[in-house]
TrEMBL record:
PANTHER family: GNTR FAMILY REGULATORY PROTEIN, TRANSCRIPTIONAL REGULATOR, GNTR FAMILY. One of its GO terms (molecular function) is DNA-binding transcription factor activity. PROSITE patterns: HTH_GNTR. Keywords: DNA-binding, Transcription, Transcription regulation. Residues 14-84 form the HTH gntR-type domain. The keyword DNA repair does not apply. This is GntR family transcriptional regulator. Pfam families: FCD (PF07729), GntR (PF00392).
Amino acid sequence: MTAHAIVYAPIGQGTRSEQVVERLSNAIVAGLLHPDEQLPNENELSRLMGVSPVTVREALNTLRARQLIDTRRGRNGGSFVCPVPAQMMHDRHPLRLATPGDLADLGELHCAVIGHSAKLAARRSTADDHRSLAQEIDQFEAAKAAQARAQSDMRCLLLLATHAQSARLANQELEIQAEWAPLVAALYPHGSVHAEMVAAYRRLQAALQAGDDLAGSALALDMISTQTDHLLEHKLRLDATAPPPQQT
């Protein structure tokens, strides 16, 4: 199972276009679908995702309105992924909007999904899976911009979930990433956090390759817990520097 197979997997007959929008927008925000990448055509999306062409057309119209895709005409035309709008990733800072309880709760859910994914991945990953994750970790280490680091981080996590060979876990991870990706992007201007996460991924990769499911699960839990702690600390700093509310 590949990451793209999760994005385009069937979501059930009769589902509303909002669910198609959510699936594709989550993949775009998380960086699984890259800028300028061409989506399958409407008929192919309809077949892959198990919904009607009308539902797909409505979903693509919504994604265009949100500036997540654009349509190009001509022989090589079609629907193409746009760079994530800056306001979606940065305006109204998501850490300012989240409460500490929200962050802790999301972190706990993410720990549950990634911790179990790592345990299963240690048992089920193939040699090709190990190579693909190692290559993605290399790309994560090489990324320079905060958003690129966050998106590469999300691709590593989604690969981990797909290597667990559980479609439900992978779909749950993709849903979580819609909230998680904009949050962790706030951490990655800091080279120290980036280096810390790269090292965490290297340790996790070694455990998975050794087939050590207990160590893999523990390392994955620690990695997400560490990110959650960094997010809580960063939120405290943001709140401390926020201007006082205006008197009316």
